[in-house]
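Hey, quick one: can you model this chain's 3D structure?
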Amino acid sequence: MYKPELLNTLRNYTGKQFVSDLIAGIIVGIVALPLSIAFAIASGCSPETGLYTAIIAGFCIAAFGGTRCQIGGPTGAFTVIIYAIVNNPALGVSGLATATVIAGILLILLGVFKLGGLVKFIPYTIVVGFTAGIAVTIATGQLGDFFGMHPQFPMTVLGMEYAKMPGTFAGKILVYANSFTTLNVYSLVMATVCLVIIFLWPRVTKKIPGSLIVIILATLVNLLVSHFAGDSSAWHTDIIKDRYSIPSGLPKPQLPNLSLSTLTTVFPTAVSIAVLAAIESLLSAVVADGMIGTKHDSNNELIGQGIANIFSPLFGGLPATGAIARTATNINNGGRTPVAGMIHAVVLLLIMMIFGKYVEYIPMCALAAVLVHVAWGMAGIPSIKALLKGQKSDITVLVVTFLITVFVDLTYAIGIGLVFAAFFFIKKMIDVSEVQTSRGTIVTGITGDGHEEQLDVPAGVLVYEIDGPLFFGTVRKFEVAVERAGAEFKVLVLRMRNTIYLDAGGIRSLEQCKQACDRRGVKIVLSGIHTQPYMLCEKTGMADKIGRENIFDNITEAMARATVLAAQ
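Sure thing. Here's the predicted structure for all 568 residues.
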């Protein structure tokens, strides 16, 4: 039965917790201000649409979702899709609103029919690939403002006619290359300094993100420079006010175009928005669970995300989802209930109503620096490096997904990535089965007459057997194992005699299991590991993390080691 997490937390809510939520909500609301504006502009929309999204969708996600600390709003993942829609003459902003409402309905249906777990069937390599592709696209879109360039349209480059900034990666690169002579040194220096400060700011404090600091500093510095430099073009950089205006309140709600022809046209895009919103929101929820030790309800979370994406476009907003960075900021500042997310939305509304006219003085190059930093964080360089040490099939899926995301379309990237992942998985299963057959059936832990042995499990030891391959479709089994490995267990023995295949998703699951057990002081011992899983563990460094002394090829030796660890 659907029950928002807000209702669960309010039963034992205290005044002390409200103070913590209030402080966290105010801080994350201020932090969300420049990000909401930047993501809207990167999407080809006016800055206030980002604020509307953070206010309306942010409030709904907190109030109706299934996560305690989720902060919702516009994110970088949507910029590619939104830009393509709003720059399509047949769709535009109206088509985007219709697609977002449909996406919201799809998200609610996913939650109602308890299909939240299906998102976990998307391979880890695909998630890393399209996220990195989106990061490259976001960074590319900011080159113009970062370098202070002013492309003059219409423009002809290599025989291609451009009436406005193209939405494709290659088109943007060509336009920027042809406009490099319009570079503004003042904008470039300001953007570079802002970017350096953002990267170095965590050494000062992690409570308040550097993005907020550079926006404030860049605005003040530019106001001073403009005052003393006068009308000198050399000391001018574009500000929000030069292109947009910030309203002082929310617009009146307006229904989007729900005609049959429009619904048919935007439905594929709506599916992309729904899938992306589901993936990112549940990833954010998992991160939040790991930070505060709770368990979110994925189905209720999808319903909350659906409600948010229905209401957001009614007030002129964009697609929304859970934002990992803002959620982490909320938790780090004491937010522990959905009340903090609701307060963050109210704070943004007050800022827009009271200080909206000052927001218009933010330099565009500073916002570009913020988005370049966001893109760097999204790129997932450590994850890519880890995957590149693994199997060729995982690397192929990663590269294909990345390239299609950058050069073609995110929707095609996910679909083709799934096809490649399925193909390689089936092929690997056939190859492994053939090798296993040729070696004969030798299974440790089975008695001579073929009956299952009776294990003597000592106190403080939990034996969990993985039945079948450990890949992107069996991650939930590990989550169950981690949930059961509570304080009463000191050692978790993972029996892998029936696990003849492991992929990048399985390695990721092992790593998450190891991290969860480390937080509880639980040691992991592997038993009956086959050749392919062990070789992959070695290549990716997982064997060293678990400890080679804790990896055995039979249950007898594994239980002996577990007994020693449990006695320590």
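One thing worth noting: The beta strands are 72-73, 155-157, 160-162, 321-322, 461-465, 491-495, 523-527, 551-552.
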